[in-house]
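User: I'm new to structure prediction. If I give you an amino acid sequence, what do you actually give back? Let's try with this one:
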Amino acid sequence: MGVGAVLDITQTALLTQRAALEVTGHNIANAETEGYSRQSVSLSPRQSLPLGRVLLGTGVQLDQVQRAYNAFASMNIDRKTSTLGDLSARDEYLGILQSVFNETEDGGLENQLSAFWAGWQDVANNPGGTAERLAVVQHAEELVSLIGARRDQVVSLESEVKSRVTQEVDSVNDMLSQVATLNNEIVGMEAGGASANDLRDQRDLLLHKISESVGVNYFEQPNGQTTVFIAGRLMVDGGNSYELDTDSSGGQLSITWHGSLPTSEDISSQIDGGKLGGYLTMLQDTLPGCVTGLDDLASSLVFEVNSVHSQGVGKTALTSATMTEIADDPTAAMSAAASGLDFHDRIDDSGAASLKVHVYDAGGTPLVAGGSTITITAGMTLNQLATAIDGVNGLSASVTNGRLTVSAAAGEGGASFAFSDDSSHVLAALGINTFFSGHDAGTIAVSATADNVTASQVQADSTFGLGDGRNALAIADLADSRLSIGGTTQTFGEAAGELLGDIGVEAASVGRQKGFQEQMIDQLVARRDSQTGVSLDEELSNMLKFQHAYTAAAKLLTVADDMLKTLVEMR
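Assistant: Good question. You get back a string of structure tokens that encode the predicted 3D arrangement of the chain. For your 571 residues, that looks like this:
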């Protein structure tokens, strides 16, 4: 012990206080760095040495550089961040959906439906009016265009969300790989007992970002490595990482997991939270629900209007009519799926249902007053229907390429014909003498022209008049009729309102939940940062403290130097 001990104490003091100043400077430099946790030095006295009966201290030593970290708070924030990621993804696309189904403008779905029904009321009031007939066709074309455009926009949104899912999966895979790499680096750096604080911050930030993308669970192993799970599947194990992938082979986008085995597993139904969870909810529920709602509305509109329209008469009776639908198999029962008819399930072939066909000569006189009845027998095929119609005097009927064509047979005295009393709905299902063609929002189209808008109905004696607007009135009355639309008994207006209302309700609910979640996370982050974040005021105070300690140690070095000089001079 002696001057050498003083010099030794001075040296350790200078080195330790310099290290403390470096840590403080590191904190100040990273005060705004995302994911950075405040670091602090842990100091302790060096081992004392005996001098006689007393123990004299030998200075200070730096034990470790500690990282302010609250594992529970961080994991809690990450869990809630996953929920927020889900809500944010849904909120974004629900907002887009609301703009797609914008009813604040005159061209909204409900307004277009109202204009369409009003057009039929105008035709009923003036059945022979060309302007009214042209107007109802125009209103129908605008309605059809709107329904189709909205379906196309929703389908386009589905494609965009699928693309976002693929991008998000690629990003998650990249971050998982980085976590595995950091696992190895942390273990290597901490092998000697040090703490890889900055690397741990980087790893925690990656885990936080992964939680924004997808619900994730993780825990730290005793050796410092973090094990990561997504949807209960192992994603990071030590220095190894496994990948997620997307698969669209089945028509629907799915997320698959690739573990250590060569096979993959579909885990879409188990993905929970994060942007991926929100995107999957949009793809599996919200967007298909919109498409289904539009399809159901369009399908019912086509069938119900056609059911009435097909039994009416335009400005003149028909000379020929070809079905707009195509039968895949004309030898299969029309009511069976094998027929390929979109409305096959609407055909009543119980044997109790029928339709009437009225044939007129060149002077407009019915060949048979009251018409001819054609019974739709059980299991009747399209070919059999053609045979039955062909058997009516004054008509010819044949099936070509899955389509039935009915024509007036001049050789039998037939010049024109009309239909009525179709309780079987076969005319609407086949698309004969109909106003619309198609079967859903993607295929609906106007097939009628102004002249063959069927405003009139055939009387019991087979006669009809141009001034008769009963058929147009019957179509107009569909506006207030409660029908089966999408499996629910409701009016067309109610069906449209429900579709629009469901989007609005979901958007409002998600928006409220998102706002609440953001406030909760802000509070949790503020509480965590108060413990682990960098306070510049505190760091400046520490800087002055360590600076003064360093200055004092330097003064001690001057004193030790003077002591040495004194000893030398004494010799």
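You can read the tokens as a compact description of the fold. Here is one thing that stands out. Residues 3-68+536-570 form one domain.
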